[in-house]
Design a protein that fits this description.
With about 400 residues, this protein is mainly α. Helices cover about 65% and strands about 0% of the residues. A hairpin with a 7-residue loop joins strand 1 and strand 2.
Length: about 400
């Protein structure tokens, strides 16, 4: 009888949408993170495992969440669109991002960032340890043009720098009410270590920019006039950076001295973006493009071949150009609109933290491909979630501000 009562209690145990969402988050996050490491060469099975999160999210959205019928029709159309683009491009994150954004309704965004922060921190440190004790490969990249670079269990050294950038942004979100000099010194110290290990200059600079941006955001939140005026324009960061990167890439000319210098500063990303525009047209729903990067064991061998950039190398690093050419014009417009809306909402509500984060992220989006990858950038999930953080003025009674 006791065993029977136990299973009855288990069966009747109340299930909340929050529990379902974070279980789905874990099912997705762990395998998709491992795909970006040297932990397993069988990435196909890891991606299939990540798809377990989909029925959980659909259960929350269609059964537990209280959407109106008209809203469910629109949501279903978005899911169908995501499925079509996924099948067209074979890019799995395009299938997953819409259910995670819509499924975040009613979830505290601070909780999502907590899960993201501690999961990423634990997994990054674990992969680094495994690589150092030689359980998994530590890919080392040699070049006569730059210092030796270490991947430390990741597929490529810049992956570590990208994780650190978004970990720093998540840390600032979680501690926005308490950020101080010690926090900034901690971010700088970690950034220097990342630079010494990976020599990823663009992520190094983007991480440093976090500090003045967060100082201005805090002052703007407290009502300081000058800071508020500066922060009021941050919502334009994504549209402006998008136009700049696409314009410079499309009109890039190696014979132009200024463009050539900018391309050199961006590690050849303008030339690769221009090549992408020359080779491929922009489609409404995206297309398949065969790319060859330096990531992974094969990429490491290609990179360590020495000399100039191999003729077989072709990879679109910029998120903006990647969206436009690989994922299609429709996905491009939707993602840019969502990020801009999140930043505008943050500005209108005078909280500024998410507009500050999107400002820094927009600099990364210009040169890195992680714009919709939740394992790097979880901030798109703020679109429909409940975003709260405590007041900066800790001398007063704590009040919760909606972001």
């Amino acid at each position: 009888m006791e065993k029977s009562n136990f299973w009855v209690k288990v069966w009747n145990y109340p299930i909340s949408g929050c529990q379902i969402y974070f279980i789905a988050f874990l099912f997705y996050f762990l395998p998709m993170f491992l795909v970006e490491t040297t932990f397993s060469p069988v990435n196909r099975w890891l991606r299939l495992f990540a798809y377990i999160s989909l029925p959980l999210l659909f259960f929350k959205i269609y059964i537990l969440d209280q959407w109106k019928k008209k809203e469910l029709v629109v949501i279903t159309l978005f899911f169908i669109l995501g499925f079509i683009i996924w099948r067209t491009t074979h890019y799995p994150d395009l299938l997953m991002i819409a259910p995670f954004i819509i499924g975040a309704k009613g979830i505290n965004f601070r909780g999502i960032i907590c899960w993201y922060f501690y999961l990423t921190l634990f997994l990054v440190l674990t992969m680094m340890f495994f690589s150092l004790v030689k359980i998994i490969p530590n890919l080392i990249y040699y070049s006569e043009f730059r210092p030796t670079r270490y991947s430390l269990g990741m597929l490529y050294p810049s992956v570590i720098a990208a994780h650190y950038l978004y970990l720093s942004l998540a840390y600032c979100y979680l501690r926005f009410s308490k950020l101080n000099v010690l926090d900034y010194l901690l971010i700088i110290a970690g950034d220097i270590i990342c630079m010494l290990l990976t020599n990823t200059k663009l992520d190094f600079l983007a991480t440093l920019i976090i500090i003045p941006v967060m100082i201005i955001a805090q002052r703007a939140f407290l009502g300081k006039k000058l800071s508020s005026k500066i922060a009021a324009f941050w919502w334009m960061a994504v549209p402006i950076s998008t136009v700049i990167m696409i314009f410079l890439s499309y009109f890039y000319d190696s014979s132009n001295y200024i463009l050539n210098k900018v391309d050199s500063m961006l590690s050849g990303r303008l030339a690769l973006g221009h090549l992408a525009f020359e080779k491929y047209d922009v489609h409404l729903l995206g297309r398949i493009i065969v790319e060859h990067s330096f990531a992974g064991v094969k990429g490491q061998k290609l990179s360590n071949g020495g000399g100039a950039l191999p003729s077989t190398y072709f990879y679109i690093d910029s998120s903006y150009i990647r969206m436009l050419i690989l994922w299609g014009f429709l996905a491009f417009i939707i993602v840019i609109s969502c990020l801009t809306f999140i930043a505008i909402r943050s500005t209108v509500r005078r909280t500024y933290i998410l507009s500050a984060i999107i400002l820094v992220s927009s600099l990364s989006f210009m040169c890195e491909p992680h714009i919709i990858q939740i394992i790097y950038n979880p901030f798109l999930l703020a679109l429909l979630s409940n975003s709260y953080f405590s007041s900066i003025d800790v001398k007063e009674n704590k009040r919760w501000i909606i972001e």
